[in-house]
């Protein structure tokens, strides 16, 4: 297994979203490689030759990834509430930037229902397009997270054009670049980002960097920045625990997704997998991130590190 290979992930991790792109690639280049659960696109679950996966909706009574769909729906309303709470804190530092972050997370929840909910047939252009947009939203989401950390350090002035214009330009760059790369992996516009060589490796280093390495790195840098602000500058221990809990929840969500999802899938006879637990944990992490942001933008700090 080489850096950027998705073969193991697509076979061992149920509902691994980016496998939708490789399913289309294999279907075009060498459909004989699609075996087992992936052999028939009309019933295939998310993944490429997965050992366990939730069949396409209406296949043998399948409801698709119904548990994760419900988790995304519940999370949607939680995040809407967070945005409303942010709107009420009119003088809070970084209010515009954190609302944008919540907005992107909200969009990823919607697209997650479509991309790993087993509601769109594998190999179709429609699934490829929504998966590519989903990948772009994830990459951009973590840029907006990092940007919130930069704003918290007051390197740039929050809410001002000097902050929002670079914020928007870099967001557009991440979105456009990731969308193009993801589409090229699946539809093979040229040979720049595909096909995999060998085909069964399902390799794409740029996609792997943008959807796996970059999110982890951005989250780690953001956490470091917030520790600096909360402990090093504000000396406020209470607020730091919100960020610590947020990180722990995020890590647990990834452990569940990558290590327990197949176990749950097998135990539930391919009716659900661990993706719904991961979604709930990720949303809980976002909620505690909000609590942390609220804690460092209380009135007590406004006249000190955060001047009005």
Notes on the structure:
By secondary structure, the protein is an all-alpha fold. It is 66% helix and 0% strand. It has helices spanning 7-12, 19-29, 66-88, 95-115, 125-152, 161-187, 205-233, 237-267, 275-296, 299-302. The chain is globular, with a radius of gyration of 20 Å.
Give me some keywords for this one.
308 residues
Poorly predicted residue ranges:
299-308
Class per helix and strand makeup? mainly alpha
**Strand runs, count:** 0
Share of helix among residues? 55-70%
What would a concise description of this structure say?
With about 300 residues, this protein is mainly alpha-helical. Helices cover about 65% and strands about 0% of the residues. The chain starts with 6 loop residues before the first helix and ends in a 6-residue tail after the last helix.
Write the layout of secondary structure elements.
Blueprint: H1 7-12, H2 19-29, H3 66-88, H4 95-115, H5 125-152, H6 161-187, H7 205-233, H8 237-267, H9 275-296, H10 299-302
């Amino acid at each position: 297994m080489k850096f950027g290979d998705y073969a193991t992930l697509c076979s061992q991790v149920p509902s691994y979203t980016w496998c939708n792109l490789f399913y289309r690639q294999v279907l075009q280049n060498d459909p004989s490689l699609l075996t087992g659960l992936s052999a028939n696109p009309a019933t295939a679950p998310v993944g490429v030759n997965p050992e366990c996966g939730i069949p396409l909706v209406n296949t043998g009574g399948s409801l698709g990834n119904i548990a994760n769909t419900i988790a995304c729906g519940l999370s949607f309303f939680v995040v809407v509430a967070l945005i409303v709470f942010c709107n009420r804190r009119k003088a809070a530092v970084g209010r515009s930037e954190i609302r944008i972050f919540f907005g992107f997370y909200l969009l990823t929840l919607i697209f997650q229902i479509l991309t790993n909910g087993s509601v769109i047939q594998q190999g179709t252009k429609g699934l490829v397009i929504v998966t590519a947009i989903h990948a772009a939203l994830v990459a951009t989401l973590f840029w907006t997270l990092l940007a919130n950390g930069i704003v918290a350090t007051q390197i740039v002035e929050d809410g001002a054009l000097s902050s929002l214009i670079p914020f928007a330009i870099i967001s557009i760059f991440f979105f456009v670049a990731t969308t193009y790369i993801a589409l090229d992996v699946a539809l093979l516009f040229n040979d720049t980002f595909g096909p995999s060589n060998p085909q069964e490796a399902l390799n794409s280093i740029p996609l792997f960097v943008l959807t796996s390495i970059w999110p982890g790195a951005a989250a780690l840098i953001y956490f470091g920045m917030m520790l600096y602000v909360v402990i090093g500058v504000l000396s406020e221990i209470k607020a730091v625990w919100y960020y610590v809990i947020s990180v722990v929840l995020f890590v647990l969500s990834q452990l569940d997704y990558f290590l327990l999802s197949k176990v749950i899938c097998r135990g539930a006879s391919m009716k659900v997998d661990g993706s719904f637990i991961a979604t709930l944990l990720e949303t809980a992490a976002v909620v505690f991130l909000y609590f942390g942001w609220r804690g460092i933008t209380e009135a007590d700090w406004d006249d000190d590190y955060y001047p009005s």
